[in-house]
Design a protein that fits this description.
This protein is of the alpha/beta class and about 375 residues long. The chain has 11 helices and 19 strands. GO terms for molecular function: ATP binding; carbamoyl-phosphate synthase (glutamine-hydrolyzing) activity.
């Protein structure tokens, strides 16, 4: 069946439909990962987005039951150069086509993804309509331009109730703005008693859970669309050790007086180099974000920039000068991606240990 992706600037990409045969409107973004399409699709941070994979062959190793990053994947569409319908891998339990059909996510294959990616890089991300409709392009553009942009992505993907994964170690409250399961796995692996709470949980409700530390998770969209979270982070500062990841990093920055802005086309992939300013070490990181902390806004706050992106110099890490709190823009849990920065979870637990002993915690990032 023929399908088309219509961009809001009028550009049309035509190919073959796979997955769910439904029409969706979303922000068109690209991911540069060579593997990990299952984790990408199930990352809640892709809520409201149509994902273009730059690697040309997708679906060749199928889908398995163990590599999901959320129970209910939230991506709005999937665009690939070549969709492989007959996977070959011993862990494969389902095809990509079957997964997308089951989840209600439309797919489009046979597209020149290199051309599409170059267009996004040149003009920035834009909204698109993915459809199997035979309606003329002007009618499709009218539908696309009439649709209101999403502002409630975090509410769509956050847990609706408190959940707990018991453990013998310190209690860590994970504020779920769209948390990947990889974050929870890293905490559980370290013996933490993990309590996952909804995005709109107040500081007082977190107090009632008696945490030893608080982790601010990743999530989709503009951090300024969740002002209640900024206020909660502001009230938690200094009361518990804090660790922010991705959207959590941006919320931490806003709570401390810094500012954020939308990037032209974002950072999405499993191969982004980041420099640790304290050690000079460059690590490869997994990333998925369309907003970033404005570097000039950090001056005059109590924050210190700890990491920068080697490619474009954007802020990739922050720590508070006096309080036990730090954050990173990238994903230390990876999934998919390199494991170069998993030690940040250990640093977070070190902060918690120091705090429990009544020690001074100034250098969260070493």
């Amino acid at each position: 069946m023929r399908a088309r992706l219509v961009l809001e600037d009028g550009t049309v990409f035509e190919g073959t439909a796979f997955g769910a045969k439904v029409e969706r409107i979303g922000e068109v973004v690209f991911n540069t990962g060579m593997t990990g399409y299952q984790e990408v699709l199930s990352d809640p941070s892709y809520c409201g987005q149509i994902v273009v994979m730059t690697y040309p062959l997708i679906g060749n190793y199928g889908v398995n039951r163990d590599d999901f990053e959320s129970v209910h994947p939230a991506a709005f569409g999937f665009v690939v150069r070549e969709h492989w319908a007959t996977p070959s891998h011993w862990r494969a339990g389902e095809t990509l086509d079957a997964l997308l059909a089951r989840l209600g996510i439309p797919g489009l294959s046979g597209v020149d993804t290199r051309m599409l990616t170059r267009r996004i890089r040149r003009y920035g991300t834009m909204r698109g309509l993915l459809t199997t409709s035979d309606d003329p392009v002007p009618a499709l553009l009218e539908r696309l331009r009439a649709a209101a942009p999403l502002r409630d992505q975090v509410a769509r993907v956050s847990t609706a109730r408190v959940q707990r994964v018991p453990g013998p170690g310190p209690r860590v409250v994970v504020v779920d703005f769209g948390a990947k399961l990889g974050i929870v796995r890293e905490l559980v692996r370290r013996g933490c008693d993990v309590v996952i709470v909804p995005h709109d949980t107040t500081a007082e409700e977190i107090d009632a859970l008696a945490p030893d530390g608080v982790l601010l998770s990743n999530g989709p969209g503009d951090p300024k669309d969740v002002p209640h979270a900024v206020e909660t982070v502001r009230r938690l500062l200094g009361r518990y050790p804090l660790f922010g990841i991705c959207l959590g990093h941006q919320l931490f920055a806003l709570a401390c007086g810094a500012d954020t802005a939308k990037l032209p086309f974002g950072h999405r992939g499993a191969n982004h180099p980041v420099k640790d300013l304290a050690t000079g070490r460059v690590v490869l990181t997994a990333q998925n974000h369309g907003y970033a902390v404005k570097p000039e806004s950090v001056a005059g706050t109590d924050l210190v920039v700890t990491h920068v992106n080697v490619n474009d110099g954007t802020v990739e890490g922050l720590r508070h000068r006096a309080l036990p709190a730090f954050s990173v823009q990238f994903h230390p849990e990876a999934a998919p991606g390199p494991h170069d920065t998993r030690d940040l979870f250990d640093r977070f637990l070190d902060l918690i240990a120091q705090s429990r002993k009544g020690g001074v915690c100034h250098a969260a990032q070493g």
